[in-house]
Amino acid sequence: SPSVLTVCFSYLTGKGSLTEKGEVTAAAVCASCMVPARGHRTLELGLAWDMPLIHFGSKEKLHLRRYTRYFGSAGDACPALSHYALTHYEQWEEKIESWQRPILESSHLPPWYKSALFNELYFLADGGTLWLELPPEACAEDVQGPAGAGLTQLLPVLREYGRFAYLEGQEYRMYNTYDVHFYASFALTMLWPKLEISLQYDI
Questions:
Q1: Which residues have a Cβ under 8 Å from the Cβ of 81 and sit 6 or more positions away?
Q2: In the prediction, which pLDDT does 142 show?
Q3: Which residues are in the Glycosyl-hydrolase family 116 catalytic region domain (predicted)?
Q4: Is the CB of residue 169 less than 8 Å from the CB of residue 176?
Q5: What's the pLDDT at 60?
Q6: CA 73 to centroid of chain Cα atoms
Q7: Which regions in the chain score pLDDT beneath 50?
Q8: Residue 176 near residue 165, CB atoms below 8 Å
Q9: How many percent of the chain have pLDDT more than 90?
Q10: pLDDT digit string (tens) for 155-177?
Q11: What does the pLDDT read at residue 13?
């Protein structure tokens, strides 16, 4: 059960050592259970990584990832993240299935459309996406510089929904390029409209 897994990993305390450049590392997870004759059992494992602070190339400023609002920014949230995933993934699967089933079972829609509709959303999760938390002490000038001091409508939106950005592509390391977003914005507008609002305000 999720609680058992959390207890299993609770003994891993203390600070780990950094690896040297080129050093190969590995990790393993072991779980066991009794399987009766002609029976079966299922073991569920949750994998999580906790990297709450990020910076861009210039390293001028640290940013908090969005999930730190709920799990903290100390870098010790992996057990809580795993537990949360293991206790909620069935609900997530049910919601995804109920969302996709009417489209996938429709005989009026061609296969290429079904594939594009769902499979091409991968880029929002795998395309260098960032969802950042705005620090509570941030002011308009922190967000937009001196020219943003008059954008009073911006701060409440960013405080509530965070800052959202994604790369133009893995080859082009630019975030939220507006010509590319013109094509991608429909997915955000239909599925995550508050993120689209946040992104538009930011631009």
A1: 46, 48, 50, 67, 71
A2: 72
A3: 162-203
A4: no
A5: 83
A6: 15
A7: 1-11
A8: yes
A9: 32
A10: 888 888 999 988 887 788 888 88
A11: 56
The predicted model scores a pTM of 0.76
At 60, the amino acid letter reads: E
| Crossing angle for the helix pair 111-119 and 78-104, to the nearest 10 degrees | 160
Q: What angle do CA 113, 119, 121 make, to 5 degrees?
A: 110
123's tokens: 């880029």
Identify whether the C-beta of residue 117 lies closer than 8 Å to the C-beta of residue 41: no
Burial of 80 by CB count in 10 Å (0-12 exposed, 13-18 middle, 19+ buried)?
middle
Q: Can you tell me the distance from the alpha carbon of 146 to that of 144, in angstroms, rounded to the nearest whole number?
A: 7
Residue 126 has a pLDDT of: 73
- Are the CB atoms for 83 and 44 separated by under 8 Å? no
Paired with 132 in beta bridges are 65, 163
* Residues shown for the chain: 203
For 25, 65, 184, 191, the CA distances from 175, given in Å and listed in that order, are 32, 16, 13, 20
Hey, how many other C-beta atoms are within 10 angstroms of the C-beta on 56? 12
* Six token digits for residue 87: 């206790």
The answer to whether the beta carbons of residues 158 and 143 sit under 8 Å apart is yes
